Amino acid sequence: MKFQELNLSDTLLEAISFMGFEEATPIQEQAIPAIMEHKDLIACAQTGTGKTAAFILPVLNELTDHNKHQTKVLVIVPTRELALQIDQQIQGFSYFTPVESIAIYGGGSGSEWDQQKRALTSGTEIIVATPGKLISHLNMGYVKFEHLRYLILDEADRMLDMGFYEDIQKIITYLPKERQTLMFSATMPSKIKQLAAKTLNHPVEITIGMSKPAEGVLQAAYLTFENQKTPLIIDLITDKPEVKSILIFSSTKKKVGDIVRGLRGKGFNVEGISSDLEQSRREEVLRGFRSKRTRVLVATDVLSRGIDIKDIDIVINYDVPGDAEDYVHRVGRTARAASSGLAITLINERDMMSFRQIEELIGSEVMKLPLPSALGDGPKWNPKSVQRTFRGKGGNFHGKGKPRRKDNRRNDNHRKDTRKER
User: Fold this and answer.
1) Which is nearest to 199 in space by CA: 346, 37, 76?
2) At what angle do helices 51-65 and 80-93 cross, to 10 degrees?
3) 239 in helix, strand or coil?
C-alpha cells in the first residue's frame, strides 16, 4: 500500500517522500487507519518492521491540523538510545510542520535537565521519555499533562522485563483518563496482556510476524569453543572490504572490552558500547558506526532493540542470547525493512540446548557451518547433553546437567547491564 492511500496530509506525505519512503509496511498499513479512527491499539510486531512510523505518522497528522503548542503526546520507552532514535525520526517526519519534540532521559548534565524542564513546562507537543527520568521531573511538581491526548508505550515487553511496571503505572496517574493509548511490543507474554487490560480501552489488536526473524536475514551458526570465538570473527571479516558494518553482541560488559581489545590488536577499526560509557560518548560511538567511520561495533543487549542503524551487513552473536525472544531482536538489527543481511551465532558446548530452543521458537533450523581448518575442530552438535535454565516465550525450561557458576554470573551480569541502561 502506498502512503498516499492512508489519508495522511500533503505536508506529511512530502516529508515521507523526502525521507525516501514509498510503501507502507504491514504494521503501518494496519495501525495507521486504526489510530486515525481514535481507537486504542495493542500491536505486536518484531524489530525492524516500521513500528515507530506506524504511531508517529497518524499522531503528527492530527497535531498538524490542531497545533496549539501544548503537550499532546507522551511516548514512553525503555532506553535513552530508543528515546533519541524516536525523537530523531519525529524530527524527520515533522520537518515541514510546526510540531516540536524532545527526548527526556537520564545521564545528562544540569543544562540538559533545565532544557527538559522548559520543554515539560512550556508545552512541547511530543515528549519521548524513559520512565525513571520522567518520574524525576514529575516528582518536582511542575509537569502538567492536562492537554495530553496520546499515551504511547513502545517496546512495552522490554520495559516490563527491565522492571518498569510500577513506574508506568505511576506515570499513568498523572495523565488524563480521556486519552488514546497505543501499546507496541515485540512479544505478547501474559504480563503485557495484563498491562493492556489495565491501560487500554477496547483496543484494536494487531499481530505482525511475531517471533520470527525478518525474511531478508540469512542465519548461520558455528560450533566453537570459547577460545575460538574471537579468532573466528577475525577470520570471517579479514580481507572482506565489502563488509563495511559489523555489529557484535556480547552477554556482558567485560566481554565487550575483551572482544574490542582482541580485534584492535589485529588492526580492526572497532568500538565498544555499554552502560559504562557516559551518554555523550555513547552517542559519539553510535554516530561513528552509523556514518561507517567505525566498521565494527561491539555491544551488550542494550542495542538489541530500538536502535535504527541502517545497512548493517553482519550481526554476530558472540554468545547465544539467554532469552529466545532476544535472538529475534538481535538478528533484527540487520535486514531492516526490505533489505538483506547476515546473522551469525557462535555456539559453545554449554549453549547448544538454548540455541536448539531458539530454533524451535523461530520455526526453522539454522545451518551450522564448519570452522576454518586453521582453527581446529569445535564441539560436536549435541543439544541434549547440557542445558541451562532458559527463559523463553512460554516460561522457563529446565533440562539435563547443571551449569557452572560462571554461566549464572554471566546471565546475572547481563540483567544488571540491561537494568542500568534506563
Assistant:
1) 76
2) 50
3) coil
**Which residue has cell 530523531?**
88
Q: Over the stretch 90-130, which tens digit does the pLDDT of each residue have?
A: 998 998 888 999 999 987 667 889 999 999 998 899 999 99
The Cα 41–Cα 203 span in angstroms is: 5
Q: pTM of the predicted model, to two decimals?
A: 0.63
Amino acid (1-letter code) at residue 260: V
Which residues face 346 on adjacent strands? 222
355-359 CB contacts, 8 Å cutoff, 24+ apart: 355/221, 355/320, 355/383, 356/383, 357/324, 357/390, 357/392, 357/397, 358/320, 358/321, 358/324, 358/327
CATH of 217-417, one of 3.90.1310.10, 1.10.10.10, 3.40.50.2000, 3.40.50.300: 3.40.50.300
CATH architecture for segment(s) 3-208:
3-Layer(aba) Sandwich (3.40)
- Which of 26-40, 128-142, 306-320, 399-413 has the least mean pLDDT? 399-413
State the span(s) of the chain assigned CATH 3.40.50.300: 3-208, 217-417
Report how far apart, in Å, the C-alpha atoms of 350 and of each of 46, 224, 254, 331, 341 are: 28, 10, 19, 21, 27
In angstroms, the Cα distances linking 417 to 12, 271, 279, 299, 301 are 38, 18, 15, 11, 8
DSSP 73: E
Angle, CA of 311, 335 and 267, to the nearest 5°: 45
Question: Is residue 411 very low, low, confident or very high in pLDDT (cuts 50, 70, 90)?
Answer: very low
